[in-house]
Records
---
Amino acid sequence: MSELELGSRSSWLSREDLDAARDRMPVLYVHAIPVRVDHAGAVTSVGLLLRAGDHGTIARELIAGRVFHGERIRDAVLRHIEKDLGPMALPLVPVSPTPFTVAEFFPTPGVTAYHDPRQHAVSLAYIVPVSGDCSPQADALDLAWVTPEETSDPALLADMAPGHGALLRHALVHLGFDV
Amino acid sequence: MSELELGSRSSWLSREDLDAARDRMPVLYVHAIPVRVDHAGAVTSVGLLLRAGDHGTIARELIAGRVFHGERIRDAVLRHIEKDLGPMALPLVPVSPTPFTVAEFFPTPGVTAYHDPRQHAVSLAYIVPVSGDCSPQADALDLAWVTPEETSDPALLADMAPGHGALLRHALVHLGFDV
Amino acid sequence: MSELELGSRSSWLSREDLDAARDRMPVLYVHAIPVRVDHAGAVTSVGLLLRAGDHGTIARELIAGRVFHGERIRDAVLRHIEKDLGPMALPLVPVSPTPFTVAEFFPTPGVTAYHDPRQHAVSLAYIVPVSGDCSPQADALDLAWVTPEETSDPALLADMAPGHGALLRHALVHLGFDV
Amino acid sequence: MSELELGSRSSWLSREDLDAARDRMPVLYVHAIPVRVDHAGAVTSVGLLLRAGDHGTIARELIAGRVFHGERIRDAVLRHIEKDLGPMALPLVPVSPTPFTVAEFFPTPGVTAYHDPRQHAVSLAYIVPVSGDCSPQADALDLAWVTPEETSDPALLADMAPGHGALLRHALVHLGFDV
């Protein structure tokens, strides 16, 4: 959910139009947590992007972005995964549209567990097994695969972009891990 | 999800602004299915509104409406229930933000099971037990409580507004009924 | 959930032991609905087994069976899929242990939507994408892939084993289909 | 899930019968997390029992216990809540049978996040709003209401019975808190 994604990479709305719409309605997002699974479907690792922010900062992120007008949620999830992991990732987008959670991002901190200074965004979050070759695309500097246990490392969590750490922990708890 | 709700009853956006935003982004909605439960939490009846539409039509509807900018989902659910059932309904809005389903309404029929000729709307759907006195408000003509078994009556389903019948059936199946 | 599965095919309990245990505690089951998906994760078809019952009857069934003592739920799901679809089915067992529904089967009809004259069984139900070659094994006579739309055919539903039709419909509704 | 619950308080199976059954099949449990909610359904506090164990230990626990043969899951949840919180708690058992998670307890540590040295138990976990007067019953020494924020206190988590801390954290994350 970087500024870049919402600005130059988004072809359907100009920056001005998006800013105007953002002030009027909650913006619908999707978050995807890419995972590797073993033969029995148990998650063995989670994919985290390393991305450069606007002001020289570098942060670990999940995959996230807007749902476009006229686009199905599952197509938005697929588009954002391919945008960040490349065309050979072979993601399996969940069969059901029900997300494992809904994350409500508010410009004011403390309303919910999630905060986004730029906007009121509501994100549907999905866990997405990928079985192919993943390579970071566009402005992603790196893609790291970490084990569920490693995600509770305070150093890793400190590197997560705002809101992404909470959502990562939620995903792992939902998967049955105690992190 | 009547025109009225999106027009005159919505104070945060002018009709022109809303029409403009609708053409640019999916509009975030909530649907609420009000239910009566017994002492063990089993649903005994479902509340359906009878509402007059724009062109002299009358249809049975669930409770539905937009999420406003800056509004939590649970506050939107509460607002729409109070708007339709009155201030004494004593709803118990679900403790978790995860909906039982996400209904994607497209202007073009056939993209998903849901269709809305006016807009691309994405609705988070919740089942809401109410324990107080419910009285239809505003433009709702009547409120009928029907048993889960009665909801499979073809005559009742034929009276449901577009999309509302499918969502009602989904809710009942989610509750464990075979309708 | 045929007698055979609970009898001769189950090596961990003798028929007598199982009958004794069945009279004392609810028996934990899993149901799996095998599906084929397209590139965006949307379900294109559902796999139904044709199985011969004890008394010369033939019925369409989902995949189902007991969870063994000491066995993880995901290993039970995998075991029953391989038992019915063969070792090359390449199932993707869901990443989360949360089922899409819990089906409670009672010996007395009418307690819930599910009925099993032999026992009180509680089944956790999962939708499982399979990407490999499926061939019916053991006592399954055939495996048919039907589209979501075809599952609402009354003739097909009439062929479903008791309880399996309701669970199939629940799965499709959960997937976002209006059947 | 104390020994007492499984022994003297359980009238349907003798201790010997239960021990025999436990060696043969996974035992079906329910866990209930009692909560207080505000007018919009947001959780304001969580109820934790203080219970004396077999060996002079004292631990904080959630509500838990077996599902009896012939008993619906929602009736088991209700029975265990009334057993621990008294007959005036006015619980609202969830309308849907789908749990927020399934906790698999194994005698061997490390198979899953949950461990029970006595048995292989599979527990369906539910969050249950209570609106009445709660008073600890039977062998519960105390009932404490803690805020969601307080549940992340390491001292409190250290007092939780094995497995109960992980399940409490899972419940809070499911509710949208970042603990």
---
Amino acid sequence: MDEQTLVFDEIFEFLENKNFPKLREILQEMNPADIALLFEELEEKAVPIVFRLLPKQLAADTFSYLESDKQVQLITSFSDVELREITDNMFIDDTVDIIEEMPANVVTRILKNTDSETRKIINELLKYPKDSAGSIMTTEFLYLDDDMTVKEAFQKIRQVGVTKETINTCFVTKSRRLLGQLSPLELLTNDEDTLVTEIMDANIIKVNTHEDQENVARMFDKYDIAALPVVDNEDRLVGIVTFDDAIEVLQEENTEDFEKMAAMMPIEDSYFKTSVFKHAKKRVLWLLILMISATFTGLLITKYEAAFAALPILISFIPMLMDTGGNCGSQTSTMIIRGFALGEISTRDFFRVMFKEFRISLIVSSILAIVNGIRIYLMYFNSESLAASGTSALMLAVVVSLSIMCAVIIAKFVGCILPMVAKMCKLDPAIMASPMITTVADAAIIFVYFNIAMKFFNI
Amino acid sequence: MDEQTLVFDEIFEFLENKNFPKLREILQEMNPADIALLFEELEEKAVPIVFRLLPKQLAADTFSYLESDKQVQLITSFSDVELREITDNMFIDDTVDIIEEMPANVVTRILKNTDSETRKIINELLKYPKDSAGSIMTTEFLYLDDDMTVKEAFQKIRQVGVTKETINTCFVTKSRRLLGQLSPLELLTNDEDTLVTEIMDANIIKVNTHEDQENVARMFDKYDIAALPVVDNEDRLVGIVTFDDAIEVLQEENTEDFEKMAAMMPIEDSYFKTSVFKHAKKRVLWLLILMISATFTGLLITKYEAAFAALPILISFIPMLMDTGGNCGSQTSTMIIRGFALGEISTRDFFRVMFKEFRISLIVSSILAIVNGIRIYLMYFNSESLAASGTSALMLAVVVSLSIMCAVIIAKFVGCILPMVAKMCKLDPAIMASPMITTVADAAIIFVYFNIAMKFFNI
């Protein structure tokens, strides 16, 4: 990080002194992802100036890493020739990603400045549902025919050329149907007359264009593959998803889960790019729902007015019982939601998980109850006000400890059932995370607590 | 999933009928990751039988995907010859991963059955700190000398061979120092007499062996690279980390964050592989700490006994205030913790984040306060008990709404400060997630609530 700050400072200095040759020299040595970071720090008017200093290919690579507001700014400042140079040098899937984020007038300009072949592909790709394999795949891949020899494969590769950083896998097809794949290294280490079908790996993993991107990303995690072929309904190879897109999807999906589990609706842009108003909008809905639900717990408490009028100290244990319940519930739901996301748990495991969580809650609740019981006894064993209300510290310790045991078991039970049921109803289990569970468990915990207290203290 | 269940059922049937030729045929068509899943479902005694049906390379690949208990079981049943066949056919980094998880006697057997060259490399790799780039890198990569031509590069590749699925990047070195990299496709599309240094990409991203694996994984996310060269302190190329290891690390780190944010200590094994006792152990410590902290909130409530004796309905709003505060705090802390993890937020942004969260909390709290105020007014506007205590529904609505505004602002403030401060103290901000924040915010919320109430109702 610090090294990068130094480089950035140097760049700012050259920019101020208008030392463009030196600036271009530094930029050429940089990685497009880092240059994109630099653009986030530049003043608005410097953005097109610095961008024009980049060599063509680096400019196109950098462009695809930029945030969408910077992209719009640049496209607006581009001449048609410049725009065409950028789109010609970008991966088609990156172009499609950019188009999906742009306002309509910018999209029209981009499409106007691509050749008809590319435009056709872009329009095809735009048709796939958002978050499907088709929408994240690229159509730029190397394929060989099934009757080719290694020598012919070499010729084809030389002829097609590696214009962009084509992924290093060759796909073998027969009338566009995928037969197998092989790496260029395997071509190099085999005899020139060998048929590609003899050395290819026929055991291939592929997905349909309509497969959900989350499942696609998980296949990369599971199978350790660099590129995943995408086929249409007729089993014809139409594109590939590469590992870098898979990493991006995994990170996006993880962020979405984090947000849902903290009672927020997913936000697509980064923290600072999202406006205060949008942040508020994404957060307030769940807060309203949970606030209204929590009033039921409150109303329930008023039903036990007699109990806490007789023994006001009972109220002081409410936060502890509610918080402990909430924490236990969120532990369980997190384990289960994450288990689903990683494919470690499936809905068939319902009873297995329930039983496991029940045993865990027995151990955990016993420890909490014992520690808490001792704490209460030590704090109140010579309390006069307690004696005045006709009860003892021991009695209080027993009541609260019993309640905490019930609270833990209830919370783990709720934390287990809600995400499981959500998954069974084909909902995202992440929305059933801690806040939801806390609200549901709270009411049950208050109910059990006051009933135990009233029984023991004869209220 | 369902398709896989069908295949598994077929396998179980062949296994029962001892139809091994048919079984071998199915297995050969399967992917090692899927076969590893199959082993999880097999009876213990069937594991070595099915494993021995696999062709050598597939057996080795499958072995590296297995859970460690299955690996121990198999190693125990292997003859020395079989063990050697497996380790010879595995990637060295996978072997190291396995060794790190094995009991000492099994490690000795594995090391005894590798050739001295491999053993030396394994011992080197085992020396790197856990979670460092050195510990996850592989030493199997293709390197070319800086004075080679394309033709000589071809010769070297043919001579070395692609024994295992070597990553498709060739590294150009000069006396072991990394100069650049190029893909085999670039070799194929260039003239035989071209020097590799002319066509290589000299702008390379690399890491030191001691770099933390989380940073390593993030570089894959940032730079879209398939392999990251790892160099020692003398800048010599000693290994590479490949994208599949990076994906694994990213998923591990995400899981760890989820666990920490739900007040659990990280668990390394999967949900079902972890015993009930271990689950309980990982969960109980934070619960104890948070339980004890929550008692302070409880003690604080008892200080306001006069207030709720005069107006018992005040108690019914405690759960709502506490829950809303907790939810708001966890929203903010989640955004910030995730922002740190994705590199979107740094500690330098402290005041920027604070100001942004403050503005968000103003909008959110106003909406919640208004909705809640209306709700209370409508519910209590002709409440006799309220009139009897000498107050009005309007007054109650104002008090609770004001308190909820304060609760939201306090919680967002705490949810913002705690992870930021943790990060500044070089602690993992994830441990400062919702449960911790709820506990801290709760006490402040109760204090503010009762003070507002006592002021307005003159208690």
